[in-house]
Amino acid sequence: MASAHSGHGRACPATGGPATRPAFRRVAGTVPTAASLLSALLSALLFVLLGLPGTPEAFAASAVPHTSGAQGISGALDASGAGTGVSGALGVPGGSGDGVTGASAVTPPGRVVIIGVPGLEWSDLDRERTPNLWRLAGEGGSASMSTRAVPPPERGITCPAAGWLTVSAGQRAGAPGTGCEPPRAPEATPGGGASVPGWDELTAFNATTSYRPVLGQLGGLAAEAGLKVAAVGPGAALAAADKSGKIGKYAASVEELGDLSPYGLIVVEADDLARAWTGDALAADDVLATMTIQARREAVARADRVVGTVLDRLPPSLADGTTPASPTASTAPETTAPETPAPAPASETTAPGTRAPETTTPETTAPGATTPEATPSEGTVPGTAAPGTGTTVLVAGLADTSVAPHLHVAIARGPSPGGETYPRGYLTAASTRQDGLVTNTDLTATAIGLLGLQSPNGVVGRAWQGGGASEEPVAATVEKLADDDLASQVLREVRGPFFAVFVAVQILFYLLAAVAIRRGWGGSRALTAIQVVAVVSGAIAVSTFLAQLIPWWSLPAPMVWVIVTILGFACAVAGVALSGPWRAHPLGPLTVVAAITSVALLADVMTGSALQVNAVTGYEPVTGGRFYGFSNIAFAVYAAGTILALAGIAQWLISGGRRTLALAVCAAYGGLAVFADGWPAWGADFGGVPAFLVGVAILMILVSGGRVSPMRLILVGLAGSLLIGAIAVADWMRPADQRTHLGAFVQQVLDGEAWTVVGRKFGAMIGVTVGNWSLSLLTLVALAFLFLVLDRPSRWGASALGRAYTLAPALRAGLIGALACSLIGFLMNDSGIAIPAMALTVAVPLTLAACVRAVRLSPPTTPGRSSVPAASTAPPSP
Length: 878
Known about the structure:
ten-stranded mixed sheet, three-stranded antiparallel sheet, 878 residues
């Protein structure tokens, strides 16, 4: 654990106490006319049949082309609709960025101030060292931010330049080179503006990436809408530049910028952490250095003073972000104090170098409250702002300043895009559906929304939203968000060793079980032990998710504790499976473990997927591949568990002469399970639905006594494709800012970008399969054990699998269905070999347990030893 807590205060920055459970929680979740009308009709029918929210009038209205000419979202395909790929491997290039800016029909914009502090993490914040950041966290919403961009070759980090360019484009972007070179100083142009050097090179480089970001989206939209744009610092210039690389106003420091009142968009760089990390060196190898704790604290303190300077210089009537902007408002004095003084009474005049008067502190201000000077606009409710008014301050730790990626700081204070003030508490976004978690592409969408503009096609994020007011102290919020990053860092350390141990133990167990079954070594005692271990092994997969109920990452020696926690849950599940009256039946333990697996993951995905966040077999927010719904590994475990559980239940019902009821149960729960896998509000899994539906269909066909023919499989596969297509179209019919990756894919089909998605998925699938040799080996060993050991005659006579089929014919249907589902899932998802590997981790051990029980219940079929020939009864020869 030393490595996880070393560096710069990984454990509880505010209190130094033990970290707690992450704060991530689930939140409530223009197109061509012919396609629009057809899709609207299909979606309306689906919504009516399934009882989904929405009205036919709404669908009909959405089918009419918008007069603004917006073409919808064509961002990258990912689980969140934020352009970050599926399970960390699938990401889709954005559109051309030719969407409409909406400048002709926008409300008067508010002022947006983006303060980028590359490398800033929640563990850096401290009440004494960073008073300005601490104050902002107490006055607005806070979240951990996943800062994924185009990384340098062979490195999984986001460099500062890439972070700024991602803000510019609203899509993952990067810069050429093998290291994290600092952004170059802009070249001055007449009138106080500047141009970014090498902009054409940056544009050309990003055009070759798979995300194809359109640089200059943010600055270009603001400029086209008639807003003045200002940038402070080279990095900020990258974010604020328009599509030609020009910035209307550039300054090297906030003081040099002067009066802030004329500007609608102000982007400020506080690059102290980035400069301390690289040491102002351009050599690529220099970025591998690690800052000392003291150097990091000093750099953070300097960055905090930059934040304080910006806040000091905001016009007094706009400092709280709840009143309209005044073009003629006077600014605070030019000079700033290095430290933040105590708030002055409202009746006193603000002294030079101090902040605008305040009457509240972060610890006592009620969420949404305003200061005495901040009188709400007429017709507004106190604590809210009229749309397009006031100043919103957005603070973001845009990039990494370490050799490993981290979650970073995100703070929003002032009016939100919806008009209400960001309440004190956690931020969220439709891209993550998790309280306390947003992405860097969401920052771009937030700024565009605050300016009263419409996001173009290439901006794939969703605006930051308040996740609800919170009464907890700032220290508690900071601690929880720092713990989110701690969990991600510990996960990165233990995931590799865990899978190495996991694969090695599974293979060793298969070898020992093969010897016991084929050779009969150990007798009946060995069979009993094998059955118990097999049931525990079959419960390991779901236990990797249940382990998230305990904060093992915050304990000493997390690698030991994650194994102990997972084994503890697996033994508990196995105890239930082996203790009830069902334990006597060959499929009893199998059915219980499989049912717990299915129900647990179904409940998790319906309530926010919290068990998958930072699980060793789930997804990690720092990677930004997926934030909600079923990850590919979770899908494999869920599908295998569901099909096997239904097989066990069907066998029980059929044994009682209720085959029709068995088929009805399989159809009802199997249909619900498949629907939950694909529905955008729950599983949001595109590639899993056809595979899952085929697996359930094979189970039902075999249980009914029918035969599985190629034509039937084709028809079922077509039905699965139509089902997920209908779900995707229904998702596409929703407003663009509410779509998931399913709806985004429909837009990509309309935009002619579908083959890019398919090609990227296929490439990722091949890469994972070839690169992950351990899971490939586990898959081969599991299949060999199933067909070369269990399905062959053994020391105990007939094959163990054959005996299990005789006593429980539904096992054959379930096993074939699970194997078919995993094979199709392997071909249709970008996680490749991981899907059959994890499905077999559930299916093969549970099948082994059923086979052992069948062997013990069946009489031996091995021929006995030949007897000695009987003596002749003929009279002896004379």
